[in-house]
Amino acid sequence: MIELTINGRKIQAPDDSTIMQAAELGGIKIPSLCKYKDIHAIGSCRVCVVEVEGARNLQASCVVKARNGMVVHTNSPRVREARRVIYDLLISDHPKECMSCARNRTCELQELGFTLDILETRLTGQQREKNIDRTPAITRDSTKCILCRRCVTTCRDIQKVGAISAQNRGFNSFIGSALGLPLGSTNCSMCGQCTKVCPTGALIATSSMETVWQALENPNVHVVVQTAPAVRAALGEPFGIPMGTSVTGKMVSALRLMGFDKVFDTDFAADLTIMEEGTELLERLTAAVSGEKVTLPMITSCSPGWIKHCEHAWPKELDHLSTCKSPHTMQGALIKSYYAEREGIDPKDIFVVSVMPCTAKKYEIERPEMQNGGYPNVDAVITTRELVRMIKVAGIDFAALEDDDFDAPLGLSTGAGVIFGVTGGVMEAALRTVYFLVTGRKLPFDGLHVTPIVGFDKIKTASIKLENVLPEYSAFEGVEVKIAVTSGLEGADILMKEVSEGTSPYHFIEIMGCPGGCIAGGGQPRTEREDYRILRAKALYTEDEAKALRMSHENPDIQKVYAEYLGRPCGEMSHHLLHTTYTPRGNFNEYLPAD
Amino acid sequence: MAKYAPRLNSLEDLQAIKDAFLAETEKYRHTVIVCGGTGCVSAHCADVLSALKKQYSVRGLRDEVRIVESGCIGLCALGPTVVVEPEGVFYCNMTPERIVQVVDKHLIGGNIILDYTFLDEKTGEHIPYMKDIPFFHDQIKIALRNCGAIDYDSIEEYISRDGYFGFAKAVNELGRTGVYEELKASGLRGRGGAGFPTGVKWESGYNQPGEQKYIVCNADEGDPGAYMDRSILEGDPHSVIEGMLLGGYTIGANKGYVYVRAEYPIAVERLSEAIETARAFGLLGENILGSGFSFDIEIRIGAGAFVCGEETALLNSIEGKRGEPRQKPPFPFQKGLFGCPTIINNVETLANVPVIIVRGAEWFASYGVGRSKGTKVFALAGDIKYSGIVEVPMGIRMGDIVFTIGGGIKDGKPFKAVQTGGPSGGCLTKDHLDVSVDYESLSAMGAIMGSGGMIVMDENTCMVDTARYFMDFVQDESCGHCVPCRVGTKRLLEILQRIVSGRGEVSDLDRLEKMALTIKDTAMCGLGQTAPNPLLTTLKYFRDEYEAHVIHKTCPAHVCKDMITYVIDPEKCRGCTLCARQCPVSAITGSVKEPHVIDSEKCTRCGTCISNCKFGAIMIK
Fold first, then answer.
1. Fewer CB near the last or first residue (10 Å), C or N of chain A?
2. ipTM of this model?
């Protein structure tokens, strides 16, 4: 421990603390802008400067370490004046469009002006030219960028993609992608993690709200909405409901109030995915144990950010991916076929909206593979953050809503479908069913949770020995199924390196593109709480455990859809509607032939 | 290149090379040194050299005269320059024709061609001997001891002047701690600008634990008009290699990097060849001079970003990252290149080290003043008569550099200011000509020693425009990392642009000062923290010029184009029509033999008319 004096107060702090951390321990908040949690402190904005006695210049408290005996002033006239000048400089090159900005009242730059009590701005001068780069998933407005580089750190150091970086010099510096290409032409995975950390409106999820409002107002369109598992784990937060509370019932009520004709649950399609993907795994494993040449490990394909990354970074390993579409596009395909036929609605009149924790799914629905019979499986994806906006626009008092239930027939799900929203959840759901199908018994884990793959470690592994198997699976007797789970693209690359080198020991790998899984997806509400992943995961596991049905194959509506429509898992109809193909890409989205 | 490359395994081997070289050169009657510095290369010294070689062959002087192509001799303004030894006769403005005559008359005839030697304009007399020329007379050459004096390409000649004996002494006598103790006692401080004591830095490197350490030579010289480091690399590359070798030995690094900008192709070429030669002689590589110490050097070429001269940005650039400063602490000696303890020294600093080790701390410390020991190399540039490279003892009067060594202002105009330290430095006035040139005195004036750029300005210089120029430079070269430097320098530049275009307001002066002080106080790295210096010093010492711009909307130096008009004095104009014909925008009208008139709406203030008028009829108002 060290002891220092901040604003006349003696404060004790751990040895390695920064001045800012030490101040916080003493209850003193130092304003900052570019810093983000523990992952990004580069001292670029200089808003957090403080006076350190004996130092010639003001010191950036987010990066300068506290030292024993240091005497610090965080609120002296010299410090306040410096912060004002810096703020003035910052907004002298910032469009004053706050009233009509997507980040109005959630903008950290705006908030900082309030914190610093800025009542006049004095500086004017050249501003950067308007330059908006729009992909289906992410919209970048570089004039609103303050070059804090949180996005660069997130993309390069956390996701290890590095699609964007600082370029050029001086006032002409900007954050951009290689060769000045639009983001959509690069190896960006569209995971949207950058949109969660951006302090201003420079990086936002591309809005689909207007499209959805228009569909809702059109009396000739049958508007169906589905909600991903992770949405319910975070949707309550912006409405003041404690983090970690699942708000499934209120969410369904709100969607009904907004005017959706049917409210379905993507969790149903998660159960469906387990049937398809589990069957696909069993097929590959059966071939393997009988000595046939087959591609293993098999890797999950629910996360479109991961899929796009795989196509860029591992274009030769695409055979390892399960051919299953992501759950919401499976659901969309069923809505416009099975449900349409059942209800006697022309699929051309159906408009499917997916509420997702994800920005990559906005990109995914525009992939040419994601359509059947000439109709896109899903017509619009809105993020959890967009749903929050829409609920507010609609004047709904969310916190006061009563619970409601999803519609049939695509609304019923098991606990296995619920945990799809958290890292390890897809694997656990698959194992619950596959183990049962092969052995006739439930997974030998407490509460059916495969404990080694629960939690937020980068790489989680386990192996499960198949013993006393059912007669029809006798070939699996004594086989040890090895699995690995990762979330975030850095972990994905670690596992894929083994796959590409042929040294991967696993049979089945679950990969989610965002660190922590969908609960921490790029479309989820922003938060700086350190424990937000743990709390949101808890919300999903709690909902899972409260369900009567915990295994996907137990879902009666799933059984019904196979009986009435699809036939059998991985059958002809399934392959037509529920499975897809992948496109090898290189460093760029479009294939660029070598000269 | 060395014709043969014996591997040297001991001090005795080194001595043998020295003895052999001295014996070999003893037989020559003359040595003719042709300056091959970049300045003289641009002035076609290669033609002079080949004419010399041809003529001395024709005249059969091969066994009597040795020809040397050296690095920069210093007086770049008069290049190509040639020195004939042992007399030390200095010939300037040489041409192939002139050198042929020097061969015939001087080398063979024994008569100095006085007309080709230095002309002292004050006395109107030629000064034949280098030692008598004021430019050279007051210089003390330590870092430049070999520069312009030896064949940069000859490791033997470097050795003959006790080169690599410093390293031999270190490993045989001083030991690792002895080297840094000697440097501490010598008082050598970093010549790159900040002036940190080199011995203390090396001691920190020595004490820092770590399996892998690095020594880095910062040759990313970026100040406009400065070329001290380039001159050393071109003229005496082995002194830098030996300096790095000593640094590596002292701190325990087996690898060194030289970070040099791509704009220095000749320096890169000569240094590369010197490294190759040193390897061939076993002075780089495994078990150097049988000491058990191994060391090698790699050159990394930078793309010329000014900020990469900042040591942590330089490290990032070597690592292949964007050249941006890192937060300090941790300092590079703790966590530097590739995360390993790293000592970074400037070229000139390293060039000083070997000779300090050979001749001792006391000898070095006998030069200089106060806490500034030894000498400093400066690049004299601007409106000075004798621009070039000079090395002077610390503590010399600023006025002596400008007027005695530099010969004063060109065309006899009055002196106005001298700018030291490049874009990070400050402008000093005629009131500061008595200032002692050392780290502390210059800082006290608001300027800095910097790496050694010295730009002299005459009365025709607008100080507001000068501040604008440097601000334009730093805002262009800012890495863009931190807000004060990225946006602040831009806003300062905009205000200065407004002022020089006649749209400034009185309140701009306070605005400039306030913002400049905040930038100094809050910017992340040395570049940003010093970026406002030229502005702040001109505001302080030339406030009347700023006031003239913002209050009276006039530019006293007649430089700022929006505030001046060109007029023709009808009394003086003879109507020769020359100005009207030369004006690129046809702004001048008038009949033959009648006074002409300038249309100031059309006039672009290019100055063509003034420089062409034979009657002095055109004035700036």
1. C
2. 0.91
